[in-house]
Amino acid sequence: VGRLDAAVVVVTTAVGEERSGCLVGFHSQCSIDPPQYAVWLSKANHTFGLVDRASHLAVHVLGPAQRPVAELFGSRTGDDVDKFARCRWSPGPAGMPMLDVVSDWFVGRKVAVIDHGGDHVGVALAPIAVTCASSGRGQVLHLSDVAFFRPSHPA
Ligand SMILES: Cc1cc2nc3c(=O)[nH]c(=O)nc-3n(C[C@H](O)[C@H](O)[C@H](O)COP(=O)(O)O)c2cc1C
Q1: Which segments of the chain have a pLDDT < 50?
Q2: What is the rounded distance in angstroms from the CA atom of residue 117 to the CA atom of residue 20?
Q3: Residue nearest atom 6 in ligand 1 by C-alpha distance
Q4: From CA 133, how far away is CA 91, in angstroms rounded?
């Protein structure tokens, strides 16, 4: 799996004034028609705590320039710090907190939560809004670029 060297994304969500988000390496498109995308969230994460109540999630595609925000969302936990007080963000579609430094993203409506008994749950998303300012070009941030980050939780 390490050889696959997946891209990493930042997933954010909000329920009212509660906000959360984390760096995610487990994610992929999971349906073509209808278009759907799945992200897998650790049950140990603060972000997971909002998933049941959240109606939508936002998926941010990162490039090398977004390494600092990747480190913030991948190495710190909302259990201890307010990550959104440490970065620039704006309210986006469905009230999702969108990271200002990220130009490629989508917001998806939660259509299913998959708990197969592992330490992560899958959240299937149906995109409701998409921005691709890079026109699909440019480098993305990979697991190998952030291998030295220390996740805030063990799983
Ligand atoms: C390279 C890397 C990949 C990660 N992939 C995932 C993932 O796929 N799913 C997940 O839930 N957490 C993943 N994490 C861990 C979370 O991003 C990390 O524990 C984060 O600090 C949790 O924040 P939270 O507790 O505020 O939700 C990853 C972390 C790193 C450094």
Answers
A1: none
A2: 23
A3: 24
A4: 18
Nearest-angstrom CA–CA distance, 112 and 143: 26
Return the number of other C-beta atoms located less than 10 Å from residue 99's C-beta.
24
Cα separation, 78 vs 22, in Å, equals 9
Q: What is the pLDDT of residue 152?
A: 84
Q: How far is residue 137's CA from residue 139's CA, in Å, rounded to a whole number?
A: 7
Question: What integer pLDDT is reported at residue 155 of this predicted model?
Answer: 72
Task: State the distance from the centre of ligand 1 to the C-alpha of 72, rounded, in angstroms.
Answer: 10
CB 25 within 8 A of CB 147: no
Tell me the C-alpha distance between 60 and 97, whole Å.
10
Contact 135, 57 (CB under 8 A): no
Question: Does ligand 1 have an atom closer than 6 angstroms to the CB of 40?
Answer: yes
Q: Tokens 């440019």 identify what position?
A: 138
